[in-house]
Design goal:
With about 270 residues, this protein is an alpha+beta fold. It has a single domain (about 1-265), classed as Aminohydrolase, N-terminal nucleophile (Ntn) domain (Glutamine Phosphoribosylpyrophosphate, subunit 1, domain 1, 4-Layer Sandwich). The protein is about 25% helix and about 30% strand. It has eight helices and 13 strands. The chain has helices at about 10-15, 20-25, 65-70, 115-120, 140-150, 155-170, 210-215, 220-225, and strands spanning about 1-10, 40-45, 50-55, 75-80, 100, 105-110, 180-185, 190-195, 205-210, 230-235, 245-250, 255-260, 260-265. The strands form two sheets. A seven-stranded antiparallel β-sheet has the order 3-2-4-1-10-9-11. A hairpin with a 2-residue loop joins β5 and β6 (about 105-110). α5 packs across α6 (about 155-170). It starts with a strand and ends in a 7-residue tail after the last strand. The model has no long low-confidence stretch (mean pLDDT about 90). GO terms for molecular function: transferase activity. Keywords: Glutamine amidotransferase, Transferase. This is Class II glutamine amidotransferase.
Length: about 270
């Protein structure tokens, strides 16, 4: 889940919605795994440009420290992630979101047969970035490949090249559908989202409708009056069932979502170069 808008309590964002991320960690409706208990993480922006990160290997529904700090944090931009391991160890360094300088990154999906591709992928990561890699996941590897290909200057192009590299190596190793991903990344100012899979059957991803429009549709809903005009959410699963609230990100697409901004474009892998 991503929240962008006015300063808001993390407790309200994580625990208050009907189908909150905490509820989804136990009862996912659309995910491949119905239970996501292999750790969690949140990343948020407050003072300065470098985001703070809090991650743990406990299930999100059973971590008292998360509830304690969530009551005290107010932020205009929150990344929150619950993890179901696809084979790598359950450890803090493998929990999302991942951070590089002012950037945050989180990923839902997998690189198929990652263990077979890992060495070739890691050799592509820029030597100056490689020492920052703390964990062993395909998600973090994808982040550092995107950084290598210029994420901080051209997010769509960098992700397209990272995907192109994985698909190229996948073909060489006889892996028919190597990429499955929904991704969110931010520098604290803009938010980019991506939905793509090699088999063109990608896990779900949604963004919320402009709050001003929603208030016109549902003037009786108090929660909409509490949200600022700039509010936007990006989620793997809707936080509540409300017609007109959620828009599915199209298959094979990238987008920029934020206050007063909504741009969705096709995503095609690029040769890594």
């Amino acid at each position: 889940m991503v929240y962008v808008g006015d300063f808001l309590s993390v407790d309200d964002l994580l625990f208050r919605p009907v189908h909150s991320l905490i509820d989804q960690s136990l009862h996912s409706r659309l995910g491949v795994e119905t239970t996501n208990g292999d750790g969690f993480g949140i990343g948020w922006y407050g003072e300065g440009t470098i985001p703070a990160v809090f991650k743990d290997t406990d299930p999100a529904w059973n971590n008292p420290n998360l509830r304690e700090i969530a009551r005290q944090i107010r932020t205009p931009l929150l990344f929150a992630h619950i993890r179901a391991s696809t084979g790598t160890p359950v450890q803090r360094s493998n929990c999302h979101p991942f951070r590089h300088g002012r950037w945050l990154w989180m990923h839902n999906g997998a690189i198929a047969r990652f263990a077979e591709l890992k060495r070739d992928l890691m050799l592509v990561v820029d030597a100056s970035l490689y020492p920052e890699i703390e964990g062993s996941t395909d998600s973090e590897a994808l982040f550092y490949l995107a950084l290598t290909y210029g994420l901080t200057e051209d997010p769509p192009g960098a992700v397209a090249r990272a995907v192109g590299l994985v698909e190229d190596l996948g073909r060489r190793h006889g892996i028919p559908h190597p990429v499955q991903m929904t991704v969110a990344t931010t520098d604290g100012e803009s938010l980019w989202i991506f939905r793509y899979s090699s088999e063109r059957h990608t896990r779900s991803l949604y963004y919320s409708t402009d709050v001003v429009q929603l208030r016109e549709l549902y003037p009786e809903l108090e929660v909409l009056r509490e949200l600022g005009d700039a509010t936007r959410f990006v989620v793997s699963e809707p936080l509540r069932d409300l017609q007109g609230l959620w828009n599915e990100v199209p298959e094979s697409s990238w987008g920029v979502i934020g206050p007063g901004r909504q741009e969705i474009r096709p995503l095609s892998p690029l040769p890594p170069g």
